[in-house]
Amino acid sequence: MAVPESPSAGYDLHHHGDREVGPGLVDLAVNVRLPRPPEWLRDELASALDSLAAYPSTAEAVAAVAARHGRPPSEVLVTAGAAEAFTLLASALRPRHAVVVHPQFTEPEAALRATGHPVSRVVLAEADGFVLDPARVPADADLVFVGNPTNPTSVLHPAAALLSLARPGRLLVVDEAFLDAVPGEGESLASGFPGVVVLRSLTKTWGLAGLRAGYVLASADVVSRLRAVQVPWSVSTLAGVATVACCRPPALEEAEKLAVAAEADREYLVSRLAEAGVEVLGTPRGPFVLIRVPDGASLRVRLREAGYAVRRGDTFPGLGPDHLRLAVRDRATTDAFLAAFRKVS
């Protein structure tokens, strides 16, 4: 059953991992994999600086995304990060019954509430590994948001389970912001299905959080409705350049290698946490993991004092103060973190 929630339901929907980060802290709170864009991408961006006097156009970026996913350009909207897409959807659509599947990234619900739409929550159970049960989504829901892999649980839902939620009269929005961090991009719906909107981000893999680069894949009529409410020139010239560069075959090959490396680093983190007596919740597939520890709120503070920033979990509907999200980093960082973790636990 979906539960209607009031804005005062006790969760800070606008809290994100960047609030946890501070000077001198090792960042395990933000899910951006690279500390900076790779050199080839920085060179591309630098080469575009002389064109900044002109107003930006997304035409080349749209064509690049369309070619990357095998879809017509009319089914692509380039956005100022995937987060802009949530605001566009909330502004352009008039759902009668919007549902957000939690725990997940909170901006979809925040955007819906900001535009006056009531929201029902379907909260997946920790005891079930946060696995999606399509039967729990109300039949009358005409707008459904779900992440895949889901932030913060890192669970990757089967494409078949997601597609079972699609039906006439309903728009299913799948946030695939972390899908390019999954080797092979398994379970993606980006190739196109009726009634399905897919959101993608370039932030996580390419170290572009400060640039804001993402896109929407949807039917041409949905893209047209979103474009109608998009602020003119919201996507900068540099974001467009980055989008084109990151859709080229060599970049896709590099992204796959980064995903394989992230998977190995995640498995190492999970094994080291197990040695410390900490269970990772669900079956993680993204570049982050969710844990639950006794007195998690206090532990988070002690970790901060020891030099490590981790993401609090109690701002996600369905989670509490004992939940913490940890970004996957290299093995040396994991070893140092676990040493600090043991000391302050």
Describe the protein.
With 345 residues, the chain is α/β, with parallel strands linked by helices. It has two domains: 123 residues, Aspartate Aminotransferase, domain 1; 210 residues, Aspartate Aminotransferase, domain 2 (3-Layer(aba) Sandwich). The chain has eleven helices and twelve strands. The protein has an eight-stranded mixed beta sheet, with helices on both faces. Strands 2-11-12-10 form a four-stranded mixed beta sheet. Strand 4, helix 4 and strand 5 form a beta-alpha-beta unit. Helix 2 packs parallel to helix 8, helix 3 packs across helix 7 and helix 9 runs parallel beside helix 11. The radius of gyration is 20 Å and the shape is globular. The mean pLDDT is 95.
Give a quick set of tags describing it.
single chain; 345 residues; alpha/beta; Aspartate Aminotransferase, domain 1; Aspartate Aminotransferase, domain 2; 8-stranded mixed beta sheet; 4-stranded mixed beta sheet; 11 helices; 12 strands; globular
Task: Sum this structure up briefly.
The protein is built from eleven helices and twelve strands.
Distance linking N and C termini: 37 Å
Low-confidence stretches: none
Secondary structure: helix percent: 25-40%
Q: On the 0-100 scale, what is the average pLDDT?
A: 95
Assign the CATH superfamily of the largest domain.
Type I PLP-dependent aspartate aminotransferase-like (Major domain)
